Amino acid sequence: MGERENSRIPLYQEKKQYEATKSNDRPAESMKKTVAPKFEVPTSFNFAVKSEKVGAFKPQNPTVSKRKIPQNGVYKGPNTRLRVEAELRDKNQLLEASNLELYRNLSEAKENIAKLTQKYTGLEGESSELKKQLEKCMLFLETSNIDPVSGEKILETAKQNEEQRKEVLSLSRNLQNELEVFSQKASEHRLQMQEIKSKVRAQQEEIERRLKEKENFQTELQEMEKALDDAQQLLDV
C-alpha cells in the first residue's frame, strides 16, 4: 500500500492550553482569535443592477472562506478519523476486488470474441468455397442442359412434355367429339321417347273412350232387354 496518505477530512482538534502561569496572566491570549475576512468592493459595482456576476465581494484570504464549519457542533476526534479511514480502506478494497473481477470478465469476453471471430473467419472461408463449387456445378448443368432439380436433360424433358401435351390434346378432342355424338344421340332418343309417350297417351285415351262406349252400349242393351221383358209380359197377359 506504501506510506499512509494524509486524510483529507477536516479535523477540529482541541485547542491546547498554554501553561498555567501564562493562562492565568493572559487568559485572553489562550483562545485563538478569529480573523474576519476582508472584502474588497469592486470599482465596477453598481447597486442598481441585480446580478450575481456584477459587484461580487471577494475575500482577500480565500483559505479563510473555504474553511468548513462543523454542523450542529459535532466534534470529530481521532477515533472518528480512524473509523472513517477504516471505512474508506474497506470501500477501496471492495472497489479493487470489483475492478479485478470486471477486468477478469473483460479478459474472458475478449478471449471469447477472439475465438468467435476466428470461427467466423473459418466459416466465411468455407462459405466462399462452397459458393465457388456451387457456381461451377450450375455452370456445368447449364452447359449440359440438365435440370438442377430433376437431374434430367432439359431438351429431352421438353420433348417429352411436348409429346404428352399432344397426346392430351388428341384425347381431349376425341372425348369432345364423343360427347357431341352422345349428346346428339341423346337428343334423338329424347325425341323418340316423347313421340312414344304421346302415342301411348293417345292409345290410353282411345281405350278409355272405347270403355265408355262399351259401358253405354251395355246400359242400352240392359234397357232394351228390360223393355222386351215388359213387352213379353204384356203379350202373355
From TrEMBL:
Keywords: Coiled coil. Residues 1-35 are annotated as: Disordered. Residues 1-32 have a biased composition (Basic and acidic residues). GO terms for biological process: mitotic sister chromatid segregation; regulation of attachment of spindle microtubules to kinetochore; spindle organization. InterPro entries: SKAP. Residues 92-133, 158-234 form a coiled coil. GO terms for cellular component: centriolar satellite; kinetochore; microtubule plus-end; mitotic spindle. It comes from the Eukaryota. PANTHER family: SMALL KINETOCHORE-ASSOCIATED PROTEIN. This is Kinetochore localized astrin (SPAG5) binding protein. It comes from Lepisosteus oculatus (Spotted gar).
